[in-house]
Amino acid sequence: MEKWSPRKITDIFSTPVFSLKRMECHHPEKNVDHDFYLLSTLDWINVVALTEDGEIILVRQHRLGTNELTLETPGGLVERGESPESTAIRELCEETGYFPDRITLMKKLAANPAIQDNHIYFYLAENCRKTGEQDLDKDEDIEVALFERDQVRAMIRSGGIDHSIAVTALSLYFLMD
Amino acid sequence: MEKWSPRKITDIFSTPVFSLKRMECHHPEKNVDHDFYLLSTLDWINVVALTEDGEIILVRQHRLGTNELTLETPGGLVERGESPESTAIRELCEETGYFPDRITLMKKLAANPAIQDNHIYFYLAENCRKTGEQDLDKDEDIEVALFERDQVRAMIRSGGIDHSIAVTALSLYFLMD
């Protein structure tokens, strides 16, 4: 199977979270040209965080994409010069005030390689303790909520957790556990 | 928890797959303004397809986002006027040549409500039989591969399936099974 070969890449627009690029490509085997539009962005992290009692720490926030309050696993962008693991700990602390005793990478996945160039690092943070308060950006408004394992599993099956990245994180945790 | 209120929405750029919009928003409780960038796109479907023998039908294709050959569950865009279920059957047939005896919705999730407005419908297609050949667009180059359930589960745990949406689909199947 031959790969598409990009012949020209053009920057179209940059936002604080991603930039949009056009890739003018050629397929050598099929001998066709095609324009692909790429969202270029930093890597992301997402964290399944467990308290010392084994409860799962979730966050609720308003998401403008769907105009809903969504229940999610904590997550964020890996800043330049920061490791994914440090980002996971930082975002967990900032969004929830909880700090983990142990953090392990469950999985690194391509976020959506059809249109994006970045990866998501999914972490498991264990024995988290509330060591401080939330430290939110001015554009963040986040509620913290703890749930039993079985409650979370039921919400994945029947509704209540509808953000696909949070479902991926939690499903990985349940599958790997 | 108050919601962000969009005051002005501006179209920035349209591609065949998504369009980029700027939402100038205000938060009534925090009394701050913030610009959000939204990717507006059609809904997507994704299919866990099983043969009559219980093998899982995956597709391999070159993805320009990561410049990798990725192993995935079949998927695609719900065209205007088409139901998600019809799309799932159509995409499965076009990408693989297999047709299902039964198709059921496992889950509808928000794709990524932080930046996107669309949903992904995850289907389970059962008793699929090879009834024809692939019917690909000129820009598609897709290989079909069948795997045992346990092989797929191992590839989610240890590598081999690295596309986050495919991992979500397959994890949902394993969790709900």
Give the helix/strand layout:
The structure is a homodimer of 177-residue chains.
Chain A: E1 5-14, E2 18-27, E3 32-41, E4 44-51, E5 56-63, E6 68-72, E7 75-77, H1 84-96, E8 98-99, E9 102-110, E10 119-130, E11 142-147, H2 149-158, H3 164-176
Parallel strand pairs in A: 4-10
Antiparallel strand pairs in A: 1-2, 2-3, 4-5, 4-7, 5-6, 5-11, 8-10, 9-10
Characterize this entry briefly.
The structure is a homodimer of 177-residue chains. By secondary structure, chain A is an alpha+beta fold.
Would you identify the regions of chain A where 5 or more consecutive residues have pLDDT less than 50?
none
Per DSSP E runs of 2 or more residues, the count of β-strands of chain A stands at 11
Which class do the helix and strand fractions of chain A yield? Answer: alpha+beta
Q: Biggest interface and its residues per chain?
A: A-B, 65 and 65 residues
What global shape of chain A is seen? elongated
Average residue pLDDT of chain A: 95
Percentage of residues assigned to helices of chain A = 10-25%
Measured distance between first and last alpha carbons of chain A: 36 Å
- Quaternary arrangement of the chains shown? homodimer
Q: Give the helices and strands of chain A as they follow along the chain.
A: EEEEEEEHEEEEHH
Tell me what portion of residues of chain A adopts beta-strand conformation.
over 45%
Rg of chain A: 19 Å
Q: Give a short account of the largest sheet of chain A.
A: 8 strands, mixed
**Counting H and I runs of at least 4 residues, what is the number of helices of chain A?**
3
